[in-house]
Amino acid sequence: MLRPLLLSAIALATLAACQREAAPPAEPAAPQTAVAPAASTHAFDPAIRAEDFADLVKTLSSDEFEGRGPGSPGEDKTVDYIKAQFERIGLKPGNGDSYFQTVPMTETTADESTSLKIDANGKPYDLKFGTDMVMGTRTGKSEVKIDGSDLVFVGYGVNAPEQKWNDYAGLDVKGKTVVMFVNDPGFHSKDESLFEGKRMTYYGRWTYKFEEAARQGAAAAIIVHDTEGASYGWDVVRGSWSGAQFDLRAADDPTPRLPAQGWITADVAKRLFADAGLDLAAEYKAANKRGFKAKPLNAKLSLDLKSKVTEKQSRNVIGVMPGSARPDEAIVYMAHWDHLGKHPEEAGDNIYNGAIDNATGVAGIIEVAGAFAAQQPKPQRSVVFLAVTLEESGLLGSKYYVAHPTIPLDKTVAVVNIDAMSVAGKTHDMTVVGFGSSELEDVLKPIADKQGRKLHAETHPEAGGFFRSDHFNFAKAGVPALYVDGGNDLVEGGVAAGEAAGKDYGDNRYHKPADEYDAATWKLDGTMDDLTAVYEVGRELSGSDKWPNWYAGNAFKAARDKMMQGK
Ligand SMILES: [Zn+2]
Fold first, then answer.
1. N or C: which end of the chain has fewer CB within 10 A?
2. Distance (Å) from CA 510 to ligand 1 centroid
């Protein structure tokens, strides 16, 4: 995940360095007998309480849990421990008679000796993996062959009905290769009236672009890299596309997939466009004007992509508190349990404990579950507690749950995601990542007011933080999602201290073995405020018959409206 507090404190250049979006899960260990999770000697209180929270985080992030790598012995300990906590609280199994949901996944490693051949107006290009391009397939096929596919430049590759923007208007790209820019039309034009200007929208994400190209029936899609638009350099693209790539099995994912997808460097694009009859610099001006029309490039692509494909699996943990009046309707609290595991090849401390990221989130939903269990009157709607796996590998556990929900999505009122809580103390504010998205913010606002806290957006909305944690999969499907974080403006020390704390975490602990529980420096009073706020949002929703929606103009509203039609 990408912490908003962290984003507020560090330069975007530094951000790029930690932006590997799909970290590898730990290698699965040899089969072994399940180990009973560490028993707590501590008596838990049903109220949201710092001591209980600290105890949960301490256990989940202990060396014994080995950094909670999916497929490792740490997975067994983690999921058993979460299940035991759900049982202690009195939650029912959330997936039939089980607390577990198996998440099958594929691991695809492209043969990096593959070259991408393009014939541009008679001029041959033989693009090398890593230096000139990166390429991969999500089909689960060990060989993908494309022979002489026509290239079409489709601007930003965006089809956004609510923005009245369609780069594919009147175009048939079946069997063709689409070439497009990263980010969205508002970014490069700096035009606030287009796609929220500099702020990254859903349509700016590279994942969206490939999915849209697949819906349009393209054979392949290529994104032209630029450092500003991506918010990271080519090294990050190369790093995250080299080696094993993780995904759900195609059969478990309702989203259509491209046979081949990848990126080319800005330098390759400049030469290729020129040889194929277009001026790249001029297209950066043309593609962000309303009425832009896709243009054929006088070029053909050929590719013989071989990959090694293996299947693995991990588990989500699901507990439910059935509603007293409308048990078929649910509020979902979610937190990813996985982290980066143990790396024996590294000298020194090589256990990535992931105390903040995301033992705090898991402990947080357990604490919230306790509060619901003690609540009088009981919640009328059901409350689901979902600890998902494989977030660090590409938000896969939540993606699988959304494709196989245990309570249907049109009966799911909202999802509240907790990913990496602040432990810097009480604040005068609260960060809503993707601020201005949904009516859930109207539920949160009076609760934050009562705590004397102001709501605001994350400091760097151009980095697209809203699209980088598990709730995003619910949002894409249409379910309103709330993703909040502790604020920046600390009661002790103000904004300067808040930013310093964020920078310290970003520089010294984020995705490092040093992300450990620290009783001496953690200030949990602010964390308890955050948990109380998200609990009260769910308490409000679970006792009501309201269905908050996305705000008008939001990209996810159409999907929600469609699923709720006639209800
Ligand atoms: Zn995280």
1. C
2. 10
Stretch(es) of the chain classified as CATH 3.50.30.30: 108-310
Measure 357 CA to ligand 1 centroid, in angstroms.
5
Total residues belonging to the chain: 567
Ligand 1 centroid, distance to 6 Cα (angstroms): 12
Please write down the HEC assignment for all residues of 181-214: ECCCHHHHHCCCCCCCCCCCCHHHCHHHHHHHHH
Contact 296, 177 (CB under 8 A): no
Average the pLDDT over each of 19-23, 399-403, 538-542 and give the range with the smallest value.
Answer: 19-23
Who's near 338: CB < 8 A, 6+ residues apart? 25, 68, 69, 70, 75, 78, 314, 358, 388, 389, 390, 391, 392, 393, 397
- Tens of pLDDT, residues 315-334: 999 999 999 999 999 999 99
Q: For residues 236 and 240, what is the distance between their CA atoms, to the nearest angstrom? A: 6
> What is the 444 CA–ligand 1 centroid distance (Å)?
22
Tell me, in angstroms, the distance from the centre of ligand 1 to residue 421's CA. Answer: 9
Give backbone dihedrals phi and psi of 107, rounded to 5 degrees, phi first. Answer: -120, 120
- Spatial neighbors of 528 by CB under 8 A, at least 6 apart, are 48, 49, 50, 53
The segment(s) of the chain belonging to CATH 3.40.630.10 are 46-90+322-564
Q: Which CATH class is domain 46-90+322-564?
A: alpha beta
Q: What is the mean pLDDT of the chain?
A: 91
Using alpha carbons, select from 422, 429, 460 the residue that is nearest to residue 444.
Answer: 429
Distance 2 CA to ligand 1 centre (A): 7
According to CATH, the topology of domain 108-310 is: Glucose Oxidase; domain 1 (3.50.30)
Which stretches of 42-99 are assigned E, i.e. beta strand? 92-93
Q: Nearest CA to 263 among 296, 229, 234?
A: 234
How many whole angstroms from its chain centre is CA 229?
Answer: 19
Q: What region, left, alpha or beta, does residue 69 occupy, with left being phi > 0 and alpha being psi -120 to 50 degrees?
A: beta
Give dist(CA 306, CA 222) in Å, integer. Answer: 18
pLDDT digits (tens, 9 = 90+) for 33-73: 444 455 555 788 888 999 999 999 999 999 999 999 998 99
How much distance in Å is there from the Cα of 337 to the middle of ligand 1? 8
Instruction: Give residue 369 CA to ligand 1 midpoint distance, Å.
Output: 20
Instruction: Compute, in angstroms, the gap from residue 468 CA to the centroid of ligand 1.
Output: 9
